[in-house]
């Protein structure tokens, strides 16, 4: 844990694990739990709820968090210039984190498939199949959108389609050795 902070003004956050959007009032006392991937996971001191503060609002937790947040990625069809390299897609996928687990979605084994195909008008379409650690997790659509936006920021990517799948179901055997070491399971 990184310490206590006080929210500087009201902001929207995502309730973990439901994925519900909520307003967090100005002056709320929060404990920082995780600051990975540009977003910040916090725990409310008053009720113990876990919340994800999006990167765009991280500065409301203090200046140190603003420096860790990321610039918004390119929008659909407005990818950065440069040649396409699938390794860059995987690099971006490794910047998406489960808000409860300090390991990226690639090392957790949540990305089942990543395929790129050239578009007739130029650029690439990237199709991704991913899952979540539990089928009822409301954070699935949140992570799905994180992946879509980050993949669209890769040079040469014009379209990104991310499907949330539940077959085969995720289990801990899908985690990499890196993830197991990070979590102290080896």
Elements, N to C (H/E): EEEEEEHHEEHEH
Major sheet size, sense and barrel closure? 6 strands, antiparallel
Number of helices: 4
Give, in spatial order, the strands making up the sheet with the most strands.
Answer: 1-4-5-6-2-3
Describe the structure.
It is a single chain. This protein has 186 residues and is an alpha+beta fold. 18% of the residues lie in helices and 28% in strands. The strands form 2 sheets. The chain has a 6-stranded antiparallel beta sheet, with no helix packed on it. It has a 3-stranded mixed beta sheet with strand order 7-8-9, with helices on one face.
Helices and strands in order:
Layout: E1 3-6, E2 11-16, E3 21-24, E4 29-34, E5 40-44, E6 50-53, H1 63-68, H2 86-93, E7 111-118, E8 124-130, H3 140-152, E9 157-164, H4 177-182
Parallel strand pairs: 8-9
Antiparallel strand pairs: 1-4, 2-3, 2-6, 4-5, 5-6, 7-8
Summarize the structure.
The chain has 186 residues and is α+β, with helices and mostly antiparallel strands.
């Amino acid at each position: 844990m990184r310490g206590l902070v006080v929210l500087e003004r009201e902001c929207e956050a995502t309730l973990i694990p439901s994925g519900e959007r909520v307003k967090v009032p100005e002056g709320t006392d929060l404990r920082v739990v995780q600051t990975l991937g540009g977003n910040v996971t916090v725990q409310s001191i008053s009720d113990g709820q876990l919340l994800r503060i999006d990167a765009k609002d991280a500065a409301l937790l203090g200046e140190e968090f603003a420096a860790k947040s990321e610039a918004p990625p390119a929008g659909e069809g407005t990818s950065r210039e440069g040649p396409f390299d699938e390794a860059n897609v995987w690099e971006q996928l490794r910047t998406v984190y489960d808000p409860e687990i300090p390991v990226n979605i690639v090392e957790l084994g949540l990305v089942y498939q990543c395929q790129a195909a050239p578009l007739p008008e130029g650029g690439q379409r990237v199709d991704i199949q991913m899952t979540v650690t539990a089928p009822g997790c409301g954070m699935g659509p949140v992570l799905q959108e994180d992946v879509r936006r980050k993949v669209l920021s890769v040079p040469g990517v014009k379209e990104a389609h991310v499907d949330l799948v539940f077959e085969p179901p995720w289990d801990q055997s899908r985690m990499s050795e890196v993830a197991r070491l990070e979590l102290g399971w080896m």
